[in-house]
Amino acid sequence: MPDTSCERSLDATLDLFALPFNDLLQKAHEVHRQNWDVNAVQTSTLVSVKTGGCAEDCKYCGQSSHFEAKLEATKLMPLEHVVEAAHKAKAVGAGRLCMGAAWRNPKDRDMSALLDMVSEVKAVGLETCMTLGMLTEGQAQSLKQAGLDYYNHNLDTSEEYYDKIVTTRTFQDRLDTLSVVRRAGLKICSGGILGMGEGREDRAGMLWALASLDPPPESVPINVLVPMPGTPLEGTPALDPLELVRTIAVARILMPGSRIRLSAGRKAMTEECQALCFFGGANSVFYGDRLLTAENQGEDEDDVLFAKLGIKKSRAETA
Ligand code: SAM
Ligand code: DTB
Ligand code: SF4
Predict the structure, then answer these.
(1) Catalytic residue at 6?
(2) Would you say residue 1 has pLDDT above 60?
(3) Alpha-helical runs (H) found in 153-296
(4) CA 21 to CA 138: how far, in whole Å?
């Protein structure tokens, strides 16, 4: 980033958030237009290859074993089911399959099955992404060798707010894993969640931390909390949608060359809110009627929205 003073830059980020809405949106849209086809949106479909029973205590997550959530823990999904999900995703027009596992980290004994998933999904003709928790150098390298394109590992929130949300690992652990992933030559997908009771300074701090990665993540998922029954954050008051639009716009200005994904939470958003997010710089979505365990706005509804907005689904980036 051009600015060398971290504190000044965080202040500058907060100044962007504080701009009059129209000024912020215009600025973000200009950056968007200079760097991207503003009428094209990248599409990733999620599949949960290992659900529930997770040892971490992320307070937003229905898959943690620390809370009352009723989600049943599964074993690792058989390869043929993953391949089936890939064919289905491809048939409806997704560009990437993102395979998620409810783990603190993968065990070495799981690696060969995971590597097969990567190569088989690539063979279907999709880009590949995985999100499996912390990785060792060796695990990251073997995923890269198998053909993995992206690794998703979110900062989730600001460093300051992090321990209100997760206590079983630290913000620094997340940064360390991102370094491991980068050293292995994988593209990074990293973002966070809004609407967890954090303040604007936390949203700014998270975006500043993401933008300060060198280079910034190629893909930045901005999730809005999906309140999961039985989790400590279940009753958190909903985020003001205009604050989501502002956050997307600031992300676009700070990370001009990154895909900004309007991620979890779209099912509860109006079309107007999503349209403003696309205007302000979002150019990627999770596509398909399921996220990992929660419902998503389905492909049919997305196709109707995209048609109304004149948006096309963009080609795969690494094919
Ligand atoms: N276990 C791995 C990890 O935490 O890195 C990978 C899977 S985890 C479900 C991936 C990301 O999904 C989390 O980092 C979080 O940002 C997002 N997420 C999980 N539950 C969510 C929820 N209820 N609402 C919004 N985003 C959520
Ligand atoms: C990301 O940032 N969001 C996705 C993906 N990366 C793995 C997950 C959203 C999960 C929403 C809640 C659920 O489906 O359980
Ligand atoms: Fe586990 Fe990931 Fe859920 Fe945290 S977000 S509890 S690490 S599955």
Answers:
(1) no
(2) no
(3) 162-165, 171-183, 200-211, 241-254, 271-280
(4) 46
Token pair for residue 210? 């993401």
Ligand 3 in reach of 291 Cβ (< 6 A): no
- The answer to whether 90 and 125 are in contact (CB under 8 A) is yes
For position 316, what pLDDT does the model report?
Answer: 65
261 a catalytic residue: yes
The response to whether residue 177 sits with its C-beta less than 6 Å from ligand 1 reads no
- Does pTM top 0.85 for this prediction? yes
Digit-coded pLDDT (tens) for 185-231:
999 999 999 999 999 999 999 999 999 999 999 999 999 999 999 99
* Per-residue pLDDT tens over the stretch 258-273: 999 999 999 999 999 9
pLDDT value, residue 70: 65
Q: Is 264 in the pocket of ligand 1 (CB under 6 A)?
A: yes
Cα–ligand 2 centroid distance for 55 (angstroms): 17
Q: Residue 160 phi/psi, 5° resolution? A: -65, -35
Q: Is there a catalytic annotation at residue 33? A: no
Spatial separation of the C-alpha atoms in residues 306 and 308, rounded to whole Å = 5
Cα 311 to middle of ligand 3, angstroms: 33
**Tokens in use for 101?**
């596992």
47 lines ligand 2 (CB under 6 A): no
**Contact residues for 131 (Cβ-Cβ < 8 A; gap 6+):** 98, 99, 100, 101, 151, 152, 153, 189
Ligand 2 centre from 291 Cα, in Å? 6
292 lines ligand 1 (CB under 6 A): yes
| Residue burial 31-69, b: 16+ Cβ < 10 Å; e: rest | bbeeebebeebbbbbbbbbbbbebebbbbbbbbbebbeb
